[in-house]
Design brief:
The protein is an alpha/beta fold. The chain has two domains: 32 residues; 254 residues, Metallo-dependent phosphatases (Purple Acid Phosphatase, chain A, domain 2). The chain is built from seven helices and 13 strands. The strands form two sheets. A seven-stranded mixed β-sheet has the order 4-5-6-7-9-8-10, with helices on one face. A six-stranded mixed β-sheet has the order 3-2-1-11-12-13, covered by helices on one side. β4 and β5 form a beta hairpin. It starts with a helix and ends with a strand.
């Protein structure tokens, strides 16, 4: 009887040790996904983040903004690409305090600059002109514009149906052809490739895919679809949807999808001479997707 009892106690202790080891292993695996401060790599050219479909002033937006602020504390950045639908529901500029200045107050106080483009909700009031002129969106009175950060040139588009395409497309091609930077990033509100509610835009695929390939655009960022999605390289361009800035909708997968998720989130980018490292970060402050964009890919 005593022998059996000793065997039971011995086996129980092994079980306890095993359970503890398993728990430690799982905890360690989970903690690997938590944002943690790390020294910046010596060849880092630029760090920035993107988010879209933000302007609700509701809990979801504040949760994403908090995660963006937490990431900033660990990995400082001074640029946010704000990819449209900045003010719901009708682009009313009088809501700017509730849907932009207060949610991102901590980042704005630290000097983080938001570079915006117009979404379909934004043009419902005065065709979006109040937002184009709003200093905090840094559009400087232009519906489409370009700016440069280190070795990265950004091109902001007005992708709305009433955009001045006759002027905007020649402008984009001219600016792309003039660009001497190794990295070219285009952003607009509407998707080109997407697996969500709206899906692909065949007209945009026809227009932009060959243009991006011709001038070596490595990344296109957008919102409109309220999810996160990262494509594989399509003729050298990665298409990234970051529309979970305040709410979410269902998303599926397509043959070109690398990762998709219906998640309140934003995307963070670290640009190096030969690659961009992308991280998708949710409101629990965990990285749920990581990808690499090569400076040149097929």
């Amino acid at each position: 009887m005593n022998l059996k009892r000793r065997q039971f106690l011995f086996l129980s202790s092994l079980g306890t040790i095993g359970t503890g080891f398993l728990g430690w292993s799982l905890a360690r695996q989970n903690n690997l996904a938590v944002i943690a401060a790390k020294p910046a790599k010596k060849d880092l050219l630029l760090r920035f983040v993107s988010v879209a479909d933000t302007g609700t002033g509701a809990k979801g937006q504040y949760a994403v903004a908090e995660a963006m602020n937490f990431y900033h504390q660990q990995h400082p950045y001074d640029l946010v690409v704000l990819a449209g639908d900045n003010i719901y529901n009708n682009g009313e500029i009088e809501k700017i305090g509730a849907v932009f200045e207060r949610p991102y107050q901590a980042l704005l106080k630290k000097g983080v600059k938001f570079q915006a483009c117009l979404g379909n909700h934004d043009i419902r009031t005065d065709n979006g002109e109040p937002q184009v002129k709003y200093p905090g969106f840094n559009m400087h009175g232009k519906r489409y514009y370009t700016f440069r950060r280190n070795q990265v040139q950004f091109f902001a588009l007005d992708t709305n149906s009433n955009a001045d395409w006759k002027k905007q497309l020649p402008w984009l091609e001219q600016e792309l052809s003039r660009s001497k930077t190794p990295w070219k990033v285009v952003f607009g509100h509407h998707p080109i490739y997407a697996s969500g509610v709206y899906g692909n835009n065949p007209e945009f695929i026809k227009i932009f895919t060959p243009l991006f390939q011709k001038y070596g655009v490595q990344l296109y960022i957008n919102g409109h679809e309220h999810h996160y999605e990262r494509t594989r390289s399509i003729n050298g361009t990665t298409y990234l949807i970051t529309g979970g800035g305040a709410g979410t909708r269902p998303v599926g997968r397509s043959e070109w999808t690398e990762y998709s998720a219906s998640s309140l989130s934003f995307a963070a980018y670290e640009v190096y001479p030969d690659r961009i490292e992308v991280s998708a970060i949710s409101t629990d402050k965990r990285v749920f997707d990581k990808g690499v964009i090569q400076i040149k890919s097929v």
